From TrEMBL:
<dbReference type="InterPro" id="IPR050592">
    <property type="entry name" value="GDSL_lipolytic_enzyme"/>
</dbReference>
<dbReference type="InterPro" id="IPR036514">
    <property type="entry name" value="SGNH_hydro_sf"/>
</dbReference>
<dbReference type="InterPro" id="IPR035669">
    <property type="entry name" value="SGNH_plant_lipase-like"/>
</dbReference>
<comment type="similarity">
    <text>Belongs to the 'GDSL' lipolytic enzyme family.</text>
</comment>
<dbReference type="Pfam" id="PF00657">
    <property type="entry name" value="Lipase_GDSL"/>
</dbReference>
<dbReference type="InterPro" id="IPR001087">
    <property type="entry name" value="GDSL"/>
</dbReference>
<protein>
    <recommendedName>
        <fullName>GDSL esterase/lipase</fullName>
    </recommendedName>
</protein>
<dbReference type="GO" id="GO:0016788">
    <property type="term" value="F:hydrolase activity, acting on ester bonds"/>
</dbReference>
Amino acid sequence: MPTTLRSLRFCEYVITTFVPGFLIPTDTPVRLSTTRGGIEKVSKEIENGRFSNGRLIPDMLASSLLHKDAIPAFLNANISDKDLLTGVNFASAGSGFDENTNFVLNVLPPSKQLSNFGDYIKRLKKVVGKDKAKAILADSLVIISAGTNDISSEKMLFNDTQYQYKLLNGMEHMVKEVHDMGCRSMIVGSLPPAGCLPIRMSLRFPNIADRKCIDEQNAYAQSYNQKLAKLLPQLQSKLSGSKLVYADIYKPLMDMIKNPKEYGFVETKLGCCGTGLVEMGPLCNQFTMLCDNDADYLFWDSIHPSQGAYKHIAQYILKHVLPKLQ
């Protein structure tokens, strides 16, 4: 495990879909949006802005690497100078590499997230000085994960490979900008098996008994992931001192879907929140009916995995992804 990575920075938007979405908490605790994260049950445990029943992957990585329970949002008015030294989050729930996605969902686009990161750097320099700030950035671990929301539209054509390149261009721009701002070590997350999300099944199969993963949507995600994995080494060779590592989220999540009992899950086709069919994000709140035992559910809502699922993915990243940064 890397020992030089002193801080965990979340320069990103997630996971969004499955991201902040899918992997990452949101940095927009006060922004009004159809994808605002956080419910009462979750906020009692950790900071608001998480579409799950607990911590997300960056939180768990921070716990393992930094002994820090969660990654706080940079836009949180109460963020401390100490938090600046050990990692903060710039993600916006529901955002993606496609600007149309950000416009439709009214979320912070990557450009604004990068602007916030620039503000963070200015504040960091005031706290520790220019040289120390430069060292902190160079030793930071950046997690970038997005794309699920981009391919979540019902109008999405899952044979449109050109759209994959549009998303990859957005990812490449994000990586270059973060590198130019002083960061060197980055983990870039793959797309999940989008065709296995409860909401995708609900839209395709009105009859609950017919629910199953949608092959063409999963194949599209895999095709994108293959291109991403191939692009990152090429991009790394162009960015001085960079270390770009591909994080395969698809594989561990699909293994949980295919072999739920091995991971302690009972239900993989429905979310714990509400009916489990379509509820997601802000529709899961203190007024929403919940399942009796959320530990049995792979998914928290119709899009986002449960804390239990995130725990297994985080363990996968710690074992198979982080060592590649050495």
